[in-house]
Specification:
Strand order of the largest sheet: 8-7-9-6-10
Radius of gyration: 19 Å
Structural class: alpha/beta
Shape: globular
Strand content: 15-25%
Mean pLDDT: 90
Low-confidence stretches: 1-28
Largest sheet: 5 strands, mixed
Order of helices and strands: HHEEHHEHEHEEEHEHEHEEHHHHEHHHH
Length: about 325
């Protein structure tokens, strides 16, 4: 089937995929505590997105800080930013590919989480370079880190998205499309990529975050709605106190953090451990220092510049306006 026909066929499935994503987003991931200030917290079902929530639930950190939490699982960061904007969520988790949303003023970054190395450009067996993807059908979840890694890899190869048949696709649909070989490649991420590899053992990885680490960092982060930060800073400080304790626990007891995350996500511990290995964990002390010395600002400024170059943003907000580093540090006092 010609690429244009494949694209039309796959695009026809997107409405159903989007509906499935929204249903997944609305599903509750559980609640913790039975009293206190209620917090609606979004997360993604991987180690980066879920580990601090799992720790806070298991260790009673919400109740300790006068909160009760309702957690909801989402398939990606942009959906959570959308939920923040419609007052269906208070806090959420995003990867590097969704950083353009707070950089466009749609949310505040309240805490940096990890440095990610989970994103990949994947290709079917026999495709060994980005140049060999020219004219082929490639899927990516629009506005996510999968989209971002694909753009970076194309630029490095002297190509643009115009050289490919790009199909915007929900993450769950990408797993099916790549596994069944309905697309030639994808901008995607682990741990979902591991699911594809079970069906396509010879799947090729053409690019990953570490290929570009000399030019851009890939922070993951927790976000909150603009109005919440402006109107209820006390609630934000309570949540940040929970996140700080969970970050400290994860740094000091990583194996237990992996076990707690596996239990929350109902996944094998070995799979979550492999997922965790793709990311650099940062301690509370490191995050405080990286905030004070301007390193986090530099990371976010680098992301802003990338999104401008990629045509995603024209005039991004300065990181000092959308990263509430002072609140994060202050929550530890």
């Amino acid at each position: 089937m010609p690429p244009s026909l494949i694209r039309r066929h796959l695009t026809a499935t997107l409405a159903g995929a989007a509906a499935l994503a929204l249903l997944t987003a609305c599903g509750s991931g559980g609640s913790s505590g039975d009293s206190g200030d209620k917090v609606r917290f979004g997360y993604i079902g991987d180690f980066n997105g879920a580990s601090l929530i799992a720790i806070a639930d298991a260790k009673g950190l919400w109740k300790k800080h006068g909160l009760t939490a309702e957690s909801k699982v989402f398939t990606n960061g942009p959906l959570q930013i959308q939920a923040l904007g419609t007052d269906n969520l208070d806090f959420g988790y995003i990867g590097p590919g969704a950083m353009w949303l707070p950089a466009s003023g749609q949310a505040k970054i309240v805490a940096i989480n990890t440095l990610g190395n989970s994103d990949r450009v994947l290709a079917q067996p026999g495709i060994t370079s980005m140049r060999q993807l020219k004219g082929k059908t490639v899927a990516a979840p629009e506005g996510t880190s999968g989209d971002m890694i694909l753009s970076l890899a194309l630029e490095k190869a002297g190509m643009t998205k115009d050289d490919l048949e790009i199909v915007p696709m929900d993450p769950s649909t990408i797993v099916s499309a790549v596994s069944s070989k309905k697309v030639d490649g994808a901008g995607f991420w682990y741990p979902a990529a591991a699911t594809i590899k079970k069906q396509v053992p010879d799947l090729v990885e053409l690019a990953e975050n570490s290929d570009f680490e000399q030019d851009v960092a890939f922070p993951t982060a927790f976000v909150a709605g603009n109005e919440l930060v402006a109107e209820n800073p006390d609630k934000v400080r309570k949540v940040l106190a929970v996140l700080r304790e969970a970050i400290a626990f994860r740094s000091e007891h990583t194996d237990e953090a992996i076990s707690l995350t596996a239990e929350k996500l109902d996944l094998p511990a070995d799979q979550v451990k492999a997922d965790a290995a793709n990311n650099k964990l940062l301690s509370v002390e490191e995050l405080d220092e990286l905030t004070r010395d301007g390193t986090v600002h530099t990371w976010l400024k680098g992301m802003n510049d990338y999104f401008v170059d990629a045509g995603k943003l024209k005039q991004p907000v300065d990181p000092e306006k959308y990263y509430t580093g002072d609140l994060f540090i202050g929550a530890g006092k």
